[in-house]
């Protein structure tokens, strides 16, 4: 039986959806004013794995992941770039979708945009005002009265006394209490017209927190089976969602709260100010195809799957440290799995859940989506396939890996693609393996040998072997190895090559 760690109860619990066989899952998505970074990759992949396993377990899943398309940061970006709000958001939504395709993240069942649910937000605000939990301040903003909601802090574990310590009402603030948060922002004269909506409180726009209360209830009803998001959303965003939804409708917002762990960079939080900020596209795009003016890009499939594997092989709740050494290790580990599939052609019989490694895989995933344990089962199958040359083991490996979104490329094509995340690529580009993440990883173009050059050298080596000139044949193998190319001689005189 599936057990999930519930942030609210701080314990693993048996998963029991409100309606047997169905799961409504809401995950807080992106605010679309910039390119997605590696922290976003962690969230996107983690909950993609969750919904994949729920479906594989037989549940009918309605996966909702919202888009915040109205926000102060979006407005600033529009003003700075002299574009309309819609132009900014459409560009970065397209860019986000390009990142999802690169990482093998499946499209949610619903992807609502905040601007489509303003009416529902105003309805909730009206209900809160009727119950004395919302008030319009002198500056026109409508705020939530935090002290009026008895359960505030139950998700994050923060008490009102903790939050009150050191808080002061800012000069000029119209809030009754520094802990109150905005539900509706009164329009400012200098703001673009396409950021303003008519409301009972005058022209304005919704605050950030209210949008998720409106979209989740509208699309999934209450309570949600699962509510998820990144680690930074637990407080105040999710705490405020609870206050809004439960304050307006009673009951409880979600049965299970899930939060993925933080992604660190060289043991520090990723931040532009620290110079360690990196986007998904910077990490996996073919360098020649990367443009700041184009939303779409061509990903390097080998590198993109490496990044997904890097995320999946860690438990979703654990902190994860992004360093060059860790990426090199992830690429090397993924290569070992693909090597097993190249060595032994997998059968197409699907998953045999009675097989020991499949049972270990399932037990791990049923234990709070422990993808780390599931990946360990994949390596056991790879070892067995290599040892026994068994097509069944290779078939199990590929079929189980598909549930994690892994190992679906053709192994020969996979290995013939260059990767920046290998010791040979770094050596060829004259960079240290411990290069700082703030520096660019090597460009694939720095790898000198193209496929045609490699095939020509292999043909020359084959001719040398046929002429029994083994010294020359060994010299060519050494030349290729120095360029990061490994050769596999197969029966029948066939030589396959791969970039190591």
TrEMBL record:
InterPro entries: Cys-tRNA-ligase, Cys-tRNA-synt_Ia_DALR, Cys-tRNA/MSH_ligase, Rossmann-like_a/b/a_fold, tRNA-synt_1_cat_dom, tRNAsynth_Ia_anticodon-bd. Residues 360-415 form the Cysteinyl-tRNA synthetase class Ia DALR domain. It is an enzyme of class 6 (ligase). GO terms for cellular component: cytosol. A motif ('HIGH' region) lies at residues 30-40. ATP binds at residue 272. Its EC number is 6.1.1.16. A motif ('KMSKS' region) lies at residues 269-273. Binds 1 zinc ion per subunit. GO terms for biological process: cysteinyl-tRNA aminoacylation. Keywords: Aminoacyl-tRNA synthetase, ATP-binding, Cytoplasm, Ligase, Metal-binding, Nucleotide-binding, Protein biosynthesis, Zinc. It catalyses: tRNA(Cys) + L-cysteine + ATP = L-cysteinyl-tRNA(Cys) + AMP + diphosphate. The keyword DNA-binding does not apply. It is found in: Cytoplasm. Its cofactor is Zn(2+). GO terms for molecular function: ATP binding; cysteine-tRNA ligase activity; zinc ion binding. Zn(2+) binds at residues 28, 212, 237, 241. Belongs to the class-I aminoacyl-tRNA synthetase family. Monomer. This is Cysteine--tRNA ligase. It comes from Bordetella ansorpii. The lineage of its organism: Bacteria, Pseudomonadati, Pseudomonadota, Betaproteobacteria, Burkholderiales. The gene is cysS.
């Amino acid at each position: 039986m599936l057990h999930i760690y519930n942030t609210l109860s701080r314990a693993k619990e048996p998963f029991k959806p409100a309606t047997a066989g169905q799961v409504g899952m809401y995950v807080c998505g992106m605010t679309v004013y910039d390119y997605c970074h590696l922290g976003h990759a962690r969230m996107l992949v983690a909950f993609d794995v969750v919904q994949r396993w729920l479906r594989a377990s037989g549940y009918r899943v309605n996966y909702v992941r919202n888009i915040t398309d109205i926000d102060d940061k979006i407005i600033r970006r529009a003003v700075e770039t002299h574009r309309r709000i819609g132009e900014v958001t459409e560009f970065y939504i397209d860019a986000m979708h390009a990142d999802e395709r690169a990482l093998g993240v499946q499209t949610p069942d619903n992807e609502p945009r905040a601007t489509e649910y303003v009416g529902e937000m105003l309805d909730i605000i009206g209900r809160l005002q009727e119950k004395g939990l919302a008030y319009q301040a002198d500056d026109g903003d409508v705020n939530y009265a935090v002290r009026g909601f008895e359960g505030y802090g139950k998700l994050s574990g923060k008490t009102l006394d903790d939050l009150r310590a050191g808080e002061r009402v800012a000069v000029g603030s119209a809030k009754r209490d520094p802990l109150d948060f905005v539900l509706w922002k009164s329009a400012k004269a200098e703001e673009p017209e396409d950021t303003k909506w008519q409301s009972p409180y005058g022209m304005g726009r919704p605050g950030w927190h209210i949008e998720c209360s409106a979209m989740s209830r509208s699309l999934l009803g209450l309570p949600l089976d699962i509510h998820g998001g990144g680690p930074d959303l637990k407080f105040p965003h999710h705490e405020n969602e609870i206050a809004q939804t439960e304050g307006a409708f009673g009951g409880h917002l979600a049965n299970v709260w899930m939060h993925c762990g933080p992604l660190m960079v060289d043991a520090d939080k990723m931040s532009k100010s620290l110079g360690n900020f990196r986007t998904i596209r910077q990490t996996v795009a073919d360098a020649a195809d990367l443009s700041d003016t184009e939303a779409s890009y061509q990903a390097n499939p080998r590198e993109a799957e490496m990044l997904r594997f890097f995320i999946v092989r860690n438990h979703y709740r654990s902190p994860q440290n992004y360093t060059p050494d860790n990426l090199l290790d992830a690429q090397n580990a993924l290569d070992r799995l693909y090597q097993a599939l190249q060595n032994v052609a997998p059968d197409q019989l699907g998953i045999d859940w009675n097989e020991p490694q499949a049972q270990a895989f399932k037990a791990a995933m049923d234990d709070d989506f422990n993808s780390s344990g599931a990946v360990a089962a994949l390596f056991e199958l790879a070892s067995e396939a290599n040892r026994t040359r068994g097509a069944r083991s290779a078939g199990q490996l590929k079929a189980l890996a598909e549930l994690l979104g892994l190992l679906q490329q053709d192994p020969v094509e996979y290995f013939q693609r260059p990767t920046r995340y290998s010791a040979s690529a770094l050596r060829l580009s004259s960079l240290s393996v411990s290069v700082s993440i703030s520096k660019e990883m090597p460009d694939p173009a720095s790898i000198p040998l193209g496929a045609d050059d490699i095939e020509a050298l292999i043909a020359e080596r084959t001719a040398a072997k046929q002429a029994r000139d083994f010294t020359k044949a060994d010299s060519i193998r050494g030349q290729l190895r120095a360029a990061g190319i490994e050769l596999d001689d197969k029966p029948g005189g066939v030589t396959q090559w791969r970039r190591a």
